[in-house]
Amino acid sequence: MTFSIVARCPQSGHFGIAAATALPAVGKLVTHAHPHAGAVATQALLNPYLGIDGVQMLREGAGAAEAKAALCARDPRIEARQFGIVDAAGRAVTHTGAENLAWAGALTGEGYAVQGNRLAGAHVVHAIADAFTREPGASLPSRLIAALEAGAAAGGDLEGERSATIYIVADEEYPLWDIRVDEHREPIAELRRLHDIFARDLLPHIRKMPSRADPGGAGEDCVV
Description:
It contains 7 helices and 10 strands. It is α+β, with helices and mostly antiparallel strands. It has one domain: Aminohydrolase, N-terminal nucleophile (Ntn) domain (Glutamine Phosphoribosylpyrophosphate, subunit 1, domain 1), CATH 3.60.20. A hairpin with a 7-residue loop joins strand 9 (163-169) and strand 10.
């Protein structure tokens, strides 16, 4: 029902997740990341603790493979789950349980993991990976949205897409990018539209917000 990509940008060190699904509000429970530690996308028969606990393991120094093994060992319904992990070194792993809806599968590359279930076929995850790696010098949010667009164009979810999201962490514990289209007839196109608005109207303010190193921030620049 969902396809997603988890990635680390080698230039910035930022971690990002992009996902789309036929259900509403994909961004609320699927995306999990922490700066300088890693990121996890959890989907299929959803268990949010795979993301929560996986990120905690990464924060404590576990690698992607170690975190995957621990998560699989502790979930009694792991064969119904699907998740992808990228750690601080850019190592990527995925898990697709045998009970996932067909077609289900995944692939990994340097710094990214792509996974999906109830897809039109294996070509969908390959299209996502190809789009993500096509322009390595582009910004991480642009690459993530391009990956979702390619996945949908290749057939995506067999039931179509109803919601989409991108979530990116940089150096702070709050996200640098967090855009959600919770219910829309064309959620990925709407995500692209919101990306442009976010980049213009909100991102400059987020970059001036308080940080751990500078608790005062760059003045009263973001008032909500």
